[in-house]
Write a structure and sequence with these properties.
There is one protein chain. This protein has 180 residues and is mostly beta strands. The protein has one domain (23-172): Jelly Rolls (Sandwich), CATH 2.60.120. Helix content is 7%, strand content 46%. It has 2 helices and 13 strands; from the N terminus they run H-E-E-E-E-E-E-E-E-E-E-E-E-E-H. The protein has helices spanning 11-18, 172-175, and strands at 21-32, 37-43, 48-59, 62-65, 68-71, 77-83, 88-89, 95-96, 103-105, 112-113, 134-140, 145-152, 158-170. The strands form 3 sheets. Strands 1, 3, 9, 11 and 13 form a 5-stranded mixed sheet that branches. Strands 2, 6, 7, 8 and 12 form a 5-stranded antiparallel sheet that branches. The chain is elongated and about 70 Å long.
Length: 180
C-alpha cells in the first residue's frame, strides 16, 4: 500500500493534538408537558471546552384527540438554544424543531395514526427518516450548560432528543499525565 501523505505528516504533532482533544457527543432529552414550556439542559463538564460541530435530533408529533393520543405529524415543539455562559441566546427567536433537527419527526409506536382514510385506528409504523445533521459550530466553555427552552403548543406531552456532536478540548490539568 502506498501512503501518499506519509512524508507530509508530522506524527509528533498529530499525537500531541490527539492527546489534547477527542470526539464527544452530548445528549439532551426531555418531555414537555402539553401547552407548557420547559428548560432542558446538558452540562459541559470541567474536563475542558466543547467545540460543537453538528446537531442532530428527533421529536414527537402528538396531539390528544377524541379517541386518545394521535400522531398527527405536525410539529408542536419550538425551541430557543441558549449558552449558559452569559445567558447568550444562540437563536434570535423560538425556532420550530422541524426546521433544525434531523432525523426530525419520530413516530410514536403507541399513538394512533391520524391519517387513516377509513377511520380505523392503527398504530403508526416506525419511521425511516433521512439523516442530515445541521452544521453548527460553536465553542461552549467548560463547566457551562447548553440549554434549550422548548414550548409545546400541543394538547399532549411531546418528547425530544438532541445530540451535540463535537470535539472536547481538554484542559491542561486533564492532559498533564498524557504529555511527553
Amino acid at each position: 500500500m502506498i501512503r501518499v501523505f506519509s512524508k507530509g505528516l508530522n506524527a509528533s504533532a498529530m499525537l500531541a493534538l490527539q492527546s489534547s482533544q477527542y470526539s464527544e457527543r452530548l445528549l439532551m432529552a426531555d418531555t414537555v408537558t402539553a401547552g407548557q414550556s420547559k428548560l432542558g439542559k446538558t452540562t459541559v463538564s470541567n474536563l475542558g471546552h466543547f467545540l460543537c460541530l453538528m446537531i442532530t435530533g428527533s421529536f414527537e408529533t402528538l396531539l390528544l384527540g377524541g379517541s386518545g393520543t394521535i400522531d398527527d405529524g405536525i410539529n408542536h415543539l419550538r425551541g430557543q438554544l441558549i449558552d449558559s455562559t452569559g445567558n447568550r441566546k444562540l437563536f434570535s427567536d423560538y425556532v420550530p424543531l422541524s426546521l433544525w433537527l434531523s432525523p426530525g419527526r419520530r413516530r410514536s409506536p403507541t399513538a394512533a395514526n391520524a391519517f387513516q382514510p377509513d377511520g380505523a385506528i392503527i398504530t403508526s409504523p416506525a419511521a425511516n427518516p433521512l439523516f442530515y445533521p445541521l452544521e453548527f459550530e460553536y465553542l461552549f466553555a467548560a463547566n457551562s450548560d447548553i440549554q434549550l427552552d422548548v414550548k409545546n403548543d400541543s394538547t399532549a406531552a411531546c418528547k425530544y432528543e438532541i445530540v451535540f456532536h463535537g470535539i472536547r478540548i481538554l484542559s491542561g490539568a486533564a492532559v498533564s499525565g498524557l504529555r511527553r
